[in-house]
Write a structure and sequence with these properties.
- 31% of the residues lie in helices and 22% in strands.
- The chain is built from eleven helices and twelve strands.
- The longest helix has 13 residues.
Length: 301
């Protein structure tokens, strides 16, 4: 979908534009006052995250004092933040700050990059932002960092090598960015976990969508923070120019990757039924695509 079509769809459906996320999901809150998902719009990245976490009762709802946290953004590409190929660095910075404010003993940030890792970490702005917030930034570039694990409920993916930062963490925070992807159509929470394994090529050569779903049966992050501040609408996952990028100013936060990715697909202007790994993951019990069954809070800033 090109940028013009996206804008037209967003205005007509009420997903984006002046009506925000109306029509995306019901504005309901659970009896306990804690929503299943929070959707925020019209703010800056850190501001939207603050509002979303407040609705959950703060990051302390997900992190206990003394725990070790691994934050997994998308840092896969040697691109500047304006190109929307990687997670917004200011969103990563604020996430790390919230982790320490909640009492985290250590926060580790990493990704298994596609471009040269040093350039990705530096030019994305994420390394600098994470370190300034107090995080430890580690490489995902060597197979020595990965350990083989079983995927008991996988259909085609029965084992994989996973980065030690994930295996050693008490809490994992998954931070994808909403963007177009040539092979999977769109890359979101479920696919962002591809960056914690070693052999990405095996997934692509086997059955990409099924591998994405299979892997998520074994690795379910404590929290998912979906960056929709800038959205790469075409030529993903890398992008060619700023013409591929649209400023959407949205954020989705929650624990159910399938639900979040369903909502994010609608923000993108797509049909969740067309994203194969969503239904495959739902069939494996990872989460639900039925947003009407969830308690969701919408916040406009």
């Amino acid at each position: 979908m090109d940028r013009r079509s996206f804008i037209k769809l967003g205005v007509s459906s009420g997903i984006i534009a002046t009506s925000g996320m109306r029509g995306l999901m019901a504005d309901t809150i659970s009896p306990s006052g804690i929503p299943d998902m929070v959707a925020v719009r019209n703010g800056e990245p850190a501001q939207m995250l603050d509002a979303a976490l407040k609705a959950f009762g703060g990051m302390k709802s997900f992190i206990k004092p003394g725990q070790r946290v691994c934050v997994k953004p998308n840092i896969g590409w040697d691109k500047s933040p304006e190109m929307a190929a990687n997670t917004n660095p200011e969103l990563v910075r604020r996430t790390v700050e919230h982790c320490f404010e909640a009492g985290a003993r250590e926060v580790v940030v990493f990704d298994h990059t596609c471009h040269r890792w040093q350039a990705c970490y530096s030019n994305s702005g994420i390394e600098k932002a994470a370190k300034e917030a107090g995080a430890k930034v580690v490489s995902g570039d060597s197979e020595l960092y990965y350990q083989e694990v079983e995927i008991p409920n996988g259909v085609v993916l029965k084992k994989d090598k996973v980065h030690q930062a994930i295996l050693e963490a008490d809490v994992v925070i998954n931070m994808p960015i909403i963007k177009h992807h040539g092979a999977a159509r769109i890359t979101l929470s479920l696919k962002n976990l591809m960056g914690i394994n070693w052999d990405r090529g095996h997934w692509h050569h086997t059955n990409l969508n099924q591998c994405i779903a299979d892997f998520s049966t074994r690795f379910k992050p404590t929290l998912n923070i979906v960056d929709g501040y800038r959205v790469l609408m075409q030529n993903g996952p890398i992008g060619n120019s700023l013409e591929d990028v649209h400023l959407v100013k949205s954020l989705l936060v929650g624990t159910d990757m399938v639900a979040l990715d369903t909502a994010a697909t609608r923000i993108f202007g797509g049909n969740p039924a067309d994203i194969s790994y969503l239904s495959l993951a739902q069939d494996l019990g990872v989460g639900t695509m039925d947003l009407a069954s969830l308690n969701v809070q919408r916040i406009a800033l």
